[in-house]
Amino acid sequence: MTDPRSFLVSIFNAAVAAADPEKTIRDHLPAKPKGRTIVIGAGKGSAQMAAAFEKAWKGPIDGLVVTRYGYGARCERIEIIEAAHPVPDAAGLEASRRLLEKVQGLTSDDLVVALISGGGSALLPSPAPGLTLADEIAVNEALLASGAPIAAMNTIRKHVSTIKGGRLAAAAHPARVVSLVVSDIPGDNPALVASGPTVPDIGSREEALASIAAYGMKLPASVMAHIQSPAADAPRPDDPRFAGNEVHLTASAGVSLEAAAAEAKRQGIEAVILSDAIEGEAREVGGVHAAIAREVATRNRPFTKPVLILSGGETTVTLRAKGKGGRNSEFLLAFAIGIDGIDGIHALAADTDGIDGSENNAGAFADDSTVPRMRAAGVDAKAMLAGNNAWTAFNAVGDLFVPGPTGTNVNDLRAILIR
After folding, report:
1. What is the pLDDT of residues 253-302, one digit of tens each?
2. pLDDT tens digit string along 128-177?
3. Largest CA distance in the chain
4. How far apart are the first and last CA of the chain?
5. Which residue ranges does the record assign to the MOFRL-associated domain (predicted)?
């Protein structure tokens, strides 16, 4: 192998291809209804899912989905709206209003197809009565800075919303709702993807309040008053309005990791998958992965080199400063520090949707030369990590990975090649 980075990019591409909406949607088409077919959706992969559904569905449809700015796709019968992510904006507020309006007045003969992928939580602001868009933005900013796992975040989000936590599906009753979900959640609980607009879960107000306290979140007084009130309760999964609805997981991190491993083996490199559901502080997870890579590189255990180590899931970042970065670049900066001076290790960490954090990169590359090259460029890697400034560090040495929007979102991919 002459170019480890090209190999790692081919692994990323294989993982993304396994979640290609054209294949996954075609494999999960619902039965046609007697009445109308309405398509709704939200998430960073929803526009590509909508385009794939249009192509595969033989019959009339009408629909509306919302995706992140720059993530749109060409559709003829399904309207695509773009809104802000990761912090909500007025365009998302209008999209939520129109989605709720789209499912009004349906009958039991009608079918609603919900195309849901990660990122939908921010794209669907719909404040509960007495709250405002500013309140939802404050909640989102507090969540992003808290270091809380995604499951806890989405339990909180659904208790300040009129669209999340199954409420969009409840609004469509008595129509049958079939949700096609691309999971970016460790454990693949579809009720947590995009805070479950069409899939309710059992998460309670009490659990939301416990997470707010555990992670020291400072939320507006109006938000706290609402969550402490029974008015915040979300529908339960046993609510009769959900009887007869269907939920199908069309793509997930586990499937994509298997595809990545198969591609490595096709190229002659054995692959091992640590887990598809790794959570925790990004820098700490990076340190653990670095320790495993060092052990393989120097002692040939617990795996025999050459080997590709793969993992998925969604780490978190507790903001300590106002640097530029994302969870994958922060993971990888900690990893680079951990393998400094150990030859033969090459890594890529990237979000499968193509964007890590708020910049235009999906993640970054690292190897044993990363920290020395940063030092030569006048960049202190440890100081950058302490300041949540991983993007700046990798940008200084040209190691950012920028594939652009991929059209899907099955969480993070970490690929570590040990030669």
Report:
1. 999 999 999 999 999 999 999 999 999 999 999 999 999 999 999 999 99
2. 999 999 999 999 999 988 989 888 998 999 999 999 999 999 999 999 99
3. 68
4. 9
5. 8-228
pTM: 0.84
Hunting for tokens 């910049």 — which residue is that?
359
Angle (CA) 123-129-130 rounded to 5° is 105
Are the beta carbons of 303 and 351 closer than 8 angstroms? no
DSSP assignment of 355-396: --TTSS-SEEEEETTHHHHHHHTT--HHHHHHTT-HHHHHHH
Q: For residue 380, which amino acid is it?
A: D
> Smallest Cα–Cα separation from 407: which of 341, 332, 351?
351
- Which amino acid, residue 13? N
CA distance 351 to 313: 10
What are φ and ψ of residue 330, in 5° steps? -70, -45
Name the residue among 293, 277, 286, 307 with its Cα closest to residue 368: 293
Instruction: Report CA 260 to chain centroid distance, whole Å.
Output: 18
DSSP 200-235: -----HHHHHHHHHHTT----HHHHHHHTSGGGPPP
Q: How far apart are CA 419 and CA 412, in angstroms?
A: 23
